[in-house]
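Sequence in, structure out. Go.
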Amino acid sequence: MVAALLLTLVSAAPSATAEQPAPSGELQRAFAEAAAEYRVPQSVLLGVSYLQSRWDGHGGAPSVTGGYGPMHLTDARTALAGAPHHSHGSEDARGDAARAPRTSDATAVEDGGTLPARLRTLERAAQLTGISPERLRTSPAANVRGGAALLAAAQKRLGVPSDDPADWYGAVARFSGADDSATAKTYADDVYDVIRSGQSRTTDSGQRVALPADAGLRPDTATADGLGLRTVDQGLTECPRSVACEWIPAPYKEFGAGDYGNHDKGNRPASQAVEYIVIHDTEATWDTTLQLVQNPEYVSWQYSLRSSDGHVAQHLRLKDVGWHAGNWYVNAKSVGLEHEGFLVSPDAWYTEAMYRSSARLVRYLAKRYDIPLDRQHIIGHDNVPGTLPSTIAGMHTDPGPYWDWAHYFNLLGRPFVPTAGPGASVVTIRPDYDDHRPVYTSCEKPGDTCPAHGSGAVRLHTAPDETAPLVKDAGLRPGGEDSTNGVNDTGARASTGQQYAVAERRGDWTAIWYLGQKAWFHNPRKEPTAVGARASVVAPREGLTEVPVYGRAYPEASAYPAGVPVQAVTPLPYKLLAGQEYVTGGRTPGEYYWATTFDSSHHTVVRGKEMYYEIQFGHRVAFVKAADVRVLRR
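Output:
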């Protein structure tokens, strides 16, 4: 039993007392007035708010760490206890049929301990301003005043009275709420990077806000030296210098009957290539996440990222293999990143600080292992295929349809842009995240409609009509039932950045090849939800009417040495049919990492002659044998 504080949000829905959207320009004025009232440089106030919320108010709904409004003022006492992410569903996070499923009796109970100051900033803002906590939560203008008051108080505490934005570096670092100097300074560096580059956008309430660039601004970083924050143990961390990273190791421990946890020792990339980075959300708060990954009887991943300030904890050496993706082939060839967040709480929003920290970490990992920055290699947990027909239904669905893949890839420096004309044979899915708001259900209760929210996923129909049934997923529903609008139902969903071969076009509708069938989505020319692309695709080789599809790329039986049991190469309940094409992420060898003993000297990488192609087959990726297909350039 793991005792931990969980702060799962009471409701994803905006507060009933949240203010209605103000006329465009009013939020910009609120920043100017608050800056003048508390004598905070307006660029600093705008920069801090951008890093927290991108100036969005989220209708009064809290973030994953209980933060409210454009300034992300935290009031985490509005939270309840909940269950940890990897205890949901039936997925075996290890995903290795050679071993008994990795299950966990880890549960979480509420702990009445004192909340850290970083989770109580709204309370302090109320004391400084005299504004009620309710108004600070629900009024964007009041929230901005509260944030300005906190910054002014931090600057006063440092004893550096100044109107020069360069002198506010220490106050910005303090505002982060980080308890270590590296994270606080990294946060401040990001704020000043925003100020130097400038930003402008229309917020979720229709407000146009702008921060003019101040390219020559050079902050006085020495003002953060007196904050009295701890120095983190960097230990064996493998992070870029631009990320504040702490070593909090996951245990490698044997606990009887040949069982051990919570990861496997490895020698990557010398033993086998690292080809994927898997994006997760934790479905738990930061403190709970850290307690779970340090439990030897639980599961593991390489990195955790904190929402409030982007702080990173590394748990495994990159050469070792975590148990996180539910597919042993993917685990053995991937790095797992867990982001503090909740899939079914669409307004439990991620901060810009976490998105930026995650993007810098992914860029570093991609460069280190030569991983392509595309959606067949930077994948969500919900894009990882089941290993066998029996495991498909139990696969996890995070980070879900509310993760902003378009913004994430902009931060990665790989925006999804057209690479071919509107009539191209391949499309990249790219709806406008803020304006694209498909209806989802079952966020809080089965069948209930989720709050309206931006989404990067498009829904797929059997015909070019919004009323047509959704396409079927034979793996999720062997009985042939239709897919649903459920937030966790991936059966008829294409996500931003994913690429598919076009099967047909009719007016404002486009059909793609998806799970062996035509799948239609609304794609009007004036407001497209997909753009043209050039890509390599695979199709059945001449003479074949259908090709088996696999959830893992394992070697042929003859490749296994004595003492290593042959792993079945079992087709999934799908077919790639003649006349269909699927975008490929590249050619990969059949490999299996045999690691079922605590003594890693017995671990073996089995590599065969059989080659595979990874393909974007449905919402999840899949594999086909190279001998079964031909590759075409579209």
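Check: Residues 8-84+94-100+107-224 form a domain with the Lysozyme fold (CATH 1.10.530.10). The longest strand covers residues 582-594.
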